[in-house]
Amino acid sequence: MHFSFVTFLLQVVNLLVVFYFLKLVLYKPLLKLMEDRQKQVDQQLDHAASTMRQAEEMMAQYQEQLAKAKADAQAIIDQATRLGNQMKEQTVAEARQEAEKLLARAREQIEKDKNQASQELRNQAANWALLIAQRVLGREVTDQDQDRLIDNVTGQLDRLH
User: Fold this and answer.
1) How distant is the alpha carbon of residue 135 from its chain centre?
2) What CA–CA distance (Å, rounded) separates 25 from 4?
3) pTM summary value
4) Is the separation of the CB atoms in 121 and 27 below 8 Å?
5) How far is Cα 14 from Cα 20, in angstroms, rounded to an integer?
6) Tens of pLDDT along the chain (161 residues)?
7) Distance of CA 147 to the CA centre of its chain
8) For every residue of the chain, which 3-state class applies, written as one string?
C-alpha cells in the first residue's frame, strides 16, 4: 500500500471543510434554539418574581389596613394581626412554592432540550459523515467502516463539548 501525502492532505482539508459546514448548519441553529429556550426561562422567572412582588404589595396594603384598625379596638388588632401573619406566611409560601416549581420545571426542560439537541446533533453528524465518506470513497461503506466512522465522529463531537 502506498502512502500519498497529497491524498492525506486532501482528506484533512476535506474533514476540516465538513466540520466547518457542520458548525454552520447544525451548531449555530442548535445554539440559537438553546438561547431561545434560555430567554423563555428568563421570562418565566421574571413572571415568578412579578408574582412575588404582587404578593408583597398585597401584604403591605394589608398592613396599612391593620394600622388604621388599631384605633378601633385592641381585640380587633390582635385578631387581625394573627390573621394577617397567617395570610402573609401562606401567601409568601405559596409564591415561593410556585416560583420553585417554575424554576424546577424550567431547569428540567432545559436539560431535556439540551440532551435532545445534543443527541440530534450526534445523529446528524454521523449521518453526514457517512454520506461524505461514501462520496469520498466512491463506494458503499461497510458496517465495520460505518461503526468506526460513527465512533470517530461522535468522539470528536464529545471533545468539542
Assistant:
1) 36
2) 31
3) 0.37
4) yes
5) 10
6) 678 889 999 999 999 999 988 888 888 888 899 999 999 999 999 999 999 999 899 888 888 876 665 667 788 878 888 999 999 999 999 999 999 999 999 999 999 998 898 888 878 877 787 777 777 777 676 777 777 777 777 777 677 66
7) 30
8) CCCCHHHHHHHHHHHHHHHHHHHHHHHHHHHHHHHHHHHHHHHHHHHHHHHHHHHHHHHHHHHHHHHHHCCCCHHHHHHHHHHHHHHHHHHHHHHHHHHHHHHHHHHHHHHHHHHHHHHHHHHHHHHHHHHHHHHHHCCCCCHHHHHHHHHHHHHHHHHHC
Q: What cell was used for 138?
A: 466512491
